[in-house]
Amino acid sequence: MTDNALIIRSVDKFRGKTQVLKAIDLAVAPGERVALLGHNGAGKSTLIKMILGQTSIDGGDISIGGAKPGRTVARAKTAFLPESVNFHPTLTGHEQLTLFASLSVRDLPDIDALLDRVGLAEASNNRIATYSKGMRQRLGLAQVLLGQPTVALLDEPTSGLDPISRQDLYAIIDELAAQGTAVLIASHALTEVEAQTDRIAILRKGIKVADDTLDNLSRGAGLPTRMRILVQDGQADQIAMATGGTRINGASVELYCDAGQKMQELRRIAAMGDVVADIELTPPRLEDLYRHYSTGGQT
Ligand SMILES: Nc1ncnc2c1ncn2[C@@H]1O[C@H](COP(=O)(O)OP(=O)(O)O)[C@@H](O)[C@H]1O
Ligand SMILES: [Mg+2]
């Protein structure tokens, strides 16, 4: 475990008498992208604040490349994109980034290239007061990219971004990971992290209820794959009877099967001959998994 960039061990947090995080274990390796998912109030931002040393750890411990949260060494290794980024409104994007770079890194990077990378080239000499929320997020991201951090913490990074900017954001996250940064992304927006992360941890009321790859979570949840069989005209009833599925319309039949039975089921349907025109498979989506794990496995 020593090669993990971020190690969270059995961490507890209390707010008054309420325990808002319970014995959380989580590790992120260099170059790994981990999504931290959970409803509002699940404890995602609190965990991030603990990693940043902004709030006390009431049990367990956290290591950032071997350093304790809040220590100078840990802070130098960590980059953070908060939920809403506040910069100095009278500075331009270029000035803000230059200021930040002069405070935090030894060799001044190419600020123009960085602003271009996050899509702010044209606005770089405008005051931040004129920026939209999405543009401020992008500037925050430029700041994250600047330091080549060991650990990057992004709290709801896509809130306020349009879908295209989200794609840009994930491209930048991929770059961060490719340079070896361990990336932790807290989000309650599920569908977008689906293809974008290596592992998914789910918090439910301060307890970690899942932590694995999407594939393994799918398998563990035992949620079925949906099969939609497109049949030749007038044959839907017959195929519904033969497969035990449900007729959706005159031309298609739907059925669900467990991951372990999928191939067997596919062979059986294919053997029905030309009456089967096509088969579409839809594996369980992250949304289904999230519902499954965040409700305690009752779905
Ligand atoms: N500064 C604070 N003082 C007291 N309670 C807080 C504070 N910040 C968060 N909480 C509580 O801690 C719990 C977790 O909140 P938070 O970490 O913000 O969740 P998330 O980011 O997953 O939405 C919630 O019940 C919230 O009300
Ligand atoms: Mg939050």
Characterization of this structure:
The protein is α/β, with parallel strands linked by helices. The chain folds into two domains: about 5-220, 3-Layer(aba) Sandwich (Rossmann fold); about 225-285, Alpha-Beta Plaits, CATH 3.30.70. About 35% of the residues lie in helices and about 30% in strands. It has ten helices and 13 strands. The chain has helices spanning about 45-50, 70-75, 95-105, 110-115, 135-145, 165-180, 215-220, 235-245, 260-270, 285-295; strands at about 5-15, 20-30, 35, 60-65, 80, 150-155, 180-185, 200-205, 205-210, 225-230, 245-250, 250-255, 275-280. It has a six-stranded mixed beta sheet, sandwiched between helices. Helix 5 (about 135-145) runs parallel beside helix 6. The longest helix is centred in the middle third of the chain and has 16 residues, at about 165-180. It starts with 5 loop residues before the first strand and ends in a 5-residue tail after the last helix.
